[in-house]
Amino acid sequence: MTGWTEDGLTRAWRALARQEAAEDWRFVHLTGMGVVSVEAGCHFPLGREALIVSFQGSSSVNPAQLPEGKGFDVACIEGQTVFAGKTAIGLVRRPEGSPEIFTIMVVDVLRTLAVAASTTNGDVMHAFLERVREWQAFMSRSHRPLSPDAQIGLLGELWMLRLLADTSLAAGALDCWYGPLRAAQDFHVRGGAIEVKSTVRTGSFLARINSIEQLDGDRMPTFLCAFRFEENTDGISLVGLVSELRERFRLAGVQRGFEALLMVMGYLDEHASLYGRTLTLKDARAFRAEGDMPRITRAMLPAAIRSAAYVLDLDALEIPSIGFPELINQFGLDQS
């Protein structure tokens, strides 16, 4: 399906950016998902990028019930021939909104729509608006410095990103980083997934599993990767790792996407002076989420339990672990 990538969306918006006559809108069809139609749009006179999702039938949507927040507007699109007989809801970037963040948000919303549309009897409009509300909440929150735990969590994800970028994925590893997009796992690699847990604490490695789907999803294989760091003056700081990856992705021409994902994770350069602690990797293990791996699965739970989170003691696991070379082999990747 065209238009699903950030580059595809950017090309579509660029093609729409030239206003003809005194039109308020220009549209181009991106894809259809069952009864849902998706268009890229450009709203004039400012040439603001938009994503329009239209649903069959003219249902009344109370504008007061649409999500509100910073970065982009959510509005019903009316009076446009292309949406006759449909309910069309548009996400329109505000002038002050980051184009990179908006593009990443749109890609994530498209993916959410696809999942909802493929679910039998799924309420696609509800799933769409709920995802938009989550993004509005992100756009509206104040950006405080990352907590110590959040710093270690981000360091672990970036460490994995660097490891994957050192494989045959190269800069394509950036497209595998789904942690900032609120996916169940941090990385989607081909048909599989990797969830990263990191700590600097001594004693038992206690990993919080945030959802049932984190270790019991549809992606195969799924691995839980555990990084234990320790402070070392010869190590690398979060700032240093960010700088290293920035240069790598700059040379590959994808730095803007990397910067936007960093922002979603709450990393801002204005807080860099607080992220100078240097660390080295003391231990790395990966566990395959299958068979005897202790975890909560959907199949073992009563239908009335809709969600669950739990803490897993990784040092108490009595199953074999593998190292990174074997992990990348599991995904059919080559180490560069």
From TrEMBL:
This is PD-(D/E)XK motif protein.
